Amino acid sequence: MFSKTCQYGIKSTLYIALQSINENRVSLKDIAKEIDSPEAFTAKILQKLVHAGIIISVRGQMGGFLIEREKMDSLKLIQIVNAIDGDHIFVECGLGLSQCNSSFPCPLHEQFSKIRTDLKAMMETTSLLGFATGLHDGLTFLKR
């Protein structure tokens, strides 16, 4: 459902959050290695996340990427998706048709509308802290 870029963005953010919980900053190289992504591609994703105010980039020898602990509970997964992919997954036709709407629905309109609504609700209510804590507790994982 999400673009590959968005998947890497979510994985990157989760990894940074987990490291930030342990009060560690993490380098681009470490993030790219952990999520199995090329460094240049990961750098572009991280730039979008910094620009959106989701992560912080600190330069210098003691630098790296981090997320403030206080911010993790208010930061929702939908913010990561919107920063990378925008809101198209929540508004566009599931079949990619340009004229699909409730007045002129595609064959999947009603079913996809329900899925889209449920997905959006889950993304709006799932905090980064809750997701990262699940990762820390072994309930979720980053690598396949």
Automatic annotation (TrEMBL):
Cellular compartments per GO CC: cytosol
Single GO term (MF): DNA-binding transcription factor activity
Domain of life: Bacteria
Protein name in UniProt: Rrf2 family transcriptional regulator
Record InterPro entries: TR_Rrf2-type_CS, Tscrpt_reg_Rrf2, WH-like_DNA-bd_sf, WH_DNA-bd_sf
Native source species: Rhodonellum psychrophilum GCM71 = DSM 17998
Pfam families, per database record: Rrf2
